[in-house]
Amino acid sequence: MIVEQIYTGCLAEAAYYIESDGEAAIIDPLRETKPYIDRASEGGAVVKYVFETHFHADFVSGHLDLAAKTGATIVFGPTAQPGYEACVARDGEEFTLGKVKIRVLHTPGHTMESSTFLLLDETGKETAIFTGDTLFIGDVGRPDLAVKTDLTREDLAGYLYDSLQSKIMILPDKVIVYPGHGAGSACGKNMSTETTDTLGNQKRFNYALRAQSKEAFVEEVTAGLMPPPQYFPKNAVMNRLGYGNLDEVMQQGTQSLSPAAFEAAANATNALILDVREAQLFAKGFIPNSINIGLEGQFAGWVGTLIPDLKQPILLVVPEGKEEEAVLRLARVGYDNCIGYLNGGFTAWQTAGWEVDKIQSITAETFATLFEQNPNLPVLDVRRKSEYDSEHIVGVENLPLDSINENMARIDKDTTYYVHCAGGYRSMVAISILKARGFTNLIDVAGGFSAIKQTNKLPLTNYVCPSTLL
């Protein structure tokens, strides 16, 4: 028996490959199918099942394409209502995979169809659980992502408590926990950087499993939940009803366009120009009105947070050799309408003599000197509210990047703002969005708050300023 975790850091997502006696199962695959098919081929195995723990909200799963290419059966837990052919299993139903079995444990709470898959080895011993978003290492799934339900998050948290107590906590301590996500995912709030553990350790150290009552559990799990990114329910619907073929999405998105063709496509389709280069490289020159979301950061999550329409036509400006990666990472979160990329990148655009724009960027040291001279300097801190509350420059305003579209009207177009985040990634995203909307008086602070703090020049506080833009 082989069990392998296939972890994708940019989404903090874990898929799983299980193989026994020439048969393989994939649990919660990402959109691309090649890694799983190649792995099965490497082991001389046939992919028999694709198990889905629930209708994922934070990414588009690869179950449909994988089943179509391998002939595997898609398996969901009880109450799932997929809009395509799949097996909706009974609670307790077992599926034979070579010499092992996989038992379905219905564990509603994160969503109502959420299920955990219990792996029984060749001797029938309870060996591992694949918990999806029911149980994480150090946390449990947030109870506010279910679609098509009248249940409150408190109701769902109550179901989650019952599921954990009746289905998970009764299992042996030596059972290995394989969760669907790790630290960095928005599907929980307290996940560990570890991506596996024993159930016994989780019983001892996971705050949610140590709750003394259902009431205490509900209160603790629902406390401090931030609203999920706007694309979450849209991805959940795609996973439930179906979606387009990834091969076709990739073929369309990786069309190479000359600068002239790129400009013509932008004008004809009203496409969003998405520049995925590194922030400071973008600042030195970019196509007017393009948005910068760098591939080196939490790219997919920020795209999903900041681009409201999954069907938005997108044209890419991308470093050479990164074209397929950019299109794939867009497709992983449901942005299937990329219509091509700029051949030769920004250099080709510039060489062809087309119009360019720039963003002024200053060092943290220069910024600190300016702030010392004028403590009323207009500054926008675009970190998350929790980061801002933890520590910020005295008197500055907080405009979290994830709510910038809703709060744009509160910014004065005639005022020159100095914009910073934690390290420089998000501030460039924010400035590019604002510039595309007509805000021209924006100056980036390179290196962000971490660099500002190292200057040791400015007064810092964890006091929440009354003028904070929420």
Automatic annotation (TrEMBL):
SUPFAM superfamilies: Metallo-hydrolase/oxidoreductase, Rhodanese/Cell cycle control phosphatase. Residues 267-358, 373-461 form the Rhodanese domain. One of its GO terms (biological process) is hydrogen sulfide metabolic process. The keyword Metal-binding applies. It comes from Spirosoma fluviale. One of its GO terms (molecular function) is metal ion binding. Signal peptide: none annotated. Keywords: Metal-binding. CDD domains: POD-like_MBL-fold, RHOD. This is Glyoxylase, beta-lactamase superfamily II.
